[in-house]
Amino acid sequence: MMLQIPEVLTKVQVAECLAILDAALWVDGNLTSGFQAALAKQNQQLPQTGEAARTVGAILLAALERNPLFVSAALPRTILSPMFNRYGEGMGFGDHIDNAVRRDPVTGQTLRTDLSATLFLSEPEDYDGGELVVDDLYGSHAVKLSAGDLILYPASSLHHVTPVTRGTRTASFFWIQSLVREDARRSLLLDMDVAIQRLSGTVGAADPSILALTGTYHNLLRQWAEV
Questions:
Q1: pLDDT value of residue 29
Q2: 3-178: what CATH class?
Q3: What are the sequence ranges of the domains in the chain?
Q4: What GO biological process terms are annotated to this protein in UniProt (predicted)?
């Protein structure tokens, strides 16, 4: 499942975050890479435990907690402290698959990476190139979203960032351990939740069909959730 989640951050929040990030000290992105990633990666990152990353990360995490589509799609158990990268002209990131397990240097927690997320902080017209390209069973999907929008996709996906040829691409990226490990099950639960919300607006939340569907949703979640 690939899912675009619009307006996770408002334009005012994006501007606030960029002001903090632009004033921070960026480092070579390969300081945080494993051996294989380092062969393909050309970008800059913020130290994850630094003040700027933690301040902007807190803004982003608070926004995610308030976003019903993100919560419904990801069913988050643990969210890795957000990280931030920047691609200038000539920078990109070749094909790679994210690590299956990561340790959060901020919280000390270890999590299984079920889902990857990228939140765009630069407007698409401010740079050329820099598309996030994700491969799945249906082909390759190039993603370049408005500032404040987020793309959510399985962390097991092969993906890359095309080279930036003009301007600068700034984004946040992080991983989620979901309550439901399997992507197909998460997709089914999301479809059911969306259907419940739509039908509730038509026939009312107390309608017997809504109560039955809601019961089925929660019974499946009870069976599949890992807590």
A1: 79
A2: mainly beta
A3: 3-178, 183-224
A4: DNA damage response; intracellular iron ion homeostasis
Confirm whether residue 218 is marked as ligand binding. no
Does residue 40 have a pLDDT over 90?
no
Report the pLDDT averaged over residues 31-38: 54
98 in a labelled binding site? yes
96 labeled part of a ligand binding site: yes
Model confidence pLDDT, tens digit, residues 169-188: 999 999 999 999 999 999 99
- Please give the Cα distance from 157 to 96 (Å, whole number): 8
Closest of 156, 213, 209 to residue 189, by C-alpha: 213
Q: How many whole angstroms separate alpha carbon 57 and alpha carbon 81?
A: 7
User: DSSP string covering 131-174, please?
Assistant: -EEEEETTEEEEE---TT-EEEEETTS-EEEPPEEEE-EEEEEE
First to last CA, the chain: 22
For 200-215, the pLDDT digits (tens) are 989 988 999 999 999 9
**pLDDT (tens digit per residue) in 84-116:** 999 999 999 999 999 999 999 999 999 999 999
Q: How far is CA 197 from each of CA 49, 210, 217, 222, rounded to the nearest angstrom? A: 39, 9, 12, 20
Please check if 54 is assigned to a binding site: no
Helical (H) or strand (E) element with 11? helix 11-22
Three-state SS at 81:
coil
Name the helix (H) or strand (E) containing 54. helix 51-65
By the 10 Å C-beta count (0-12 exposed, 13-18 middle, 19+ buried), 128 is classed as middle
